[in-house]
Amino acid sequence: MAYQVAVCGPAECAEPDRADAYRVGELLAEAGAVVLCGGGTGVMAAAAAGARSRGGLVVGIRPDDARDPANPDLSVTIVTNMGQARNAILVWSADAVIVVGGSWGTLSEVALARRRGGVPVVALRGWRVLDHTGRAVPGLHHVDSPHEAVRVALSYG
């Protein structure tokens, strides 16, 4: 069975995050991993485009009730009609999670993945989550490059 990696990030992102997500998608596809994403714009679209540019399989897990206007780079679209609750489906379907950038929805995906346990969560220049004492929340692997993000995510597979 193919290793599945969720790539999470904001629908509205800055160009550096878009470029990182695209490269993450490329690297995951080159490694033979299936890319899971929310199927929308921003980081999700960039990761999908990067993976498809290398012939990868991309599964979009949509929050709404229609396949359109899903991203054209998706290989498969799963319609949930569950809004942000689809984030749970996304992270529970993944063998690893890579987070590029940050938004409130992205933070929920980090929390769901960490709560699940046993799933590596890699933050590529994203949220630095601290607990109530100011210490870093355990279990988040902070990295500074797409190559390192994919290396860490795939090292668990």
3D structure, described in words:
The protein has 157 residues and is α/β, with parallel strands linked by helices. The chain is built from five helices and seven strands; from the N terminus they run βαβαββαβαββα. 36% of the residues lie in helices and 20% in strands. A seven-stranded parallel beta sheet has the order 4-3-2-1-5-6-7, with helices on both faces. β1 (4-8), α1 and β2 form a beta-alpha-beta unit. α1 (15-30) packs parallel to α2 (43-53), α1 packs across α5 (146-154) and α3 packs across α4. The longest helix is centred in the N-terminal third of the chain and has 16 residues, at 15-30.
CATH fold field value:
Rossmann fold
Helical stretch tally: 5
Compute the number of structural domains: 1
The CATH architecture can be given as: 3-Layer(aba) Sandwich
Give unreliable regions as ranges: none
Helix share, percent: 25-40%
Order of helix and strand elements from N to C terminus: EHEHEEHEHEEH
In angstroms, what separates the terminal alpha carbons?
A: 11 Å
